[in-house]
Amino acid sequence: MRHDIALIKLNAPVQFSDVVRPACLPSLGWDLRVGSLCYVTGWGETRGTGFNHALKQTDVSIMPKSNCSFEEHSQICVKNQKGFQSTCHGDSGGPLACKLGGRWYVMGATSYGTMGNFMHGLCAMPEQRTVFMKMSDKADWIQKMIDMYS
């Protein structure tokens, strides 16, 4: 899944508030250090209970690329920090958000897990890694699309 990304154009402006704020996108070539702490959010499966009615969040740490099997220049590997909490079926496309220098950045988009069976809600195993599409790898394309369709 080398290009696991999509952009949408909204029909109306986003109404920002205390709980709805923009996040930054990384520049081309930005990489996260191994061990960096980030957060994932999603509405997906939680242990066979179906999709959530509330947005869930958990923290993850950036792992060495050797811990996942993937196209390393366009993807990021993370490990769940809280035992049995991670992404699952229904979380695809959700953000990998990291706070860097006091600003929030969307560093990746949820792509897939390395273990478990996402289709049956068997996710967040202790040794599971989650693979994210790396936003910094797509920075030029994202800017080109924004310029073209704005």
From TrEMBL:
Per UniProt, residues of the Peptidase S1 domain are 1-147
State the source organism's domain of life.
Eukaryota
Which Gene Ontology molecular-function terms are recorded? serine-type endopeptidase activity
Supply one GO BP term.
proteolysis
Any Pfam family matching the protein: Trypsin
**Keyword tags:** Disulfide bond
Q: Which PANTHER family match?
A: ACROSIN-RELATED, HYALIN
Q: What name does this protein carry? A: Plasma kallikrein
Which organism encodes this protein? Answer: Trichonephila clavata
Q: Which gene encodes it?
A: KLKB1
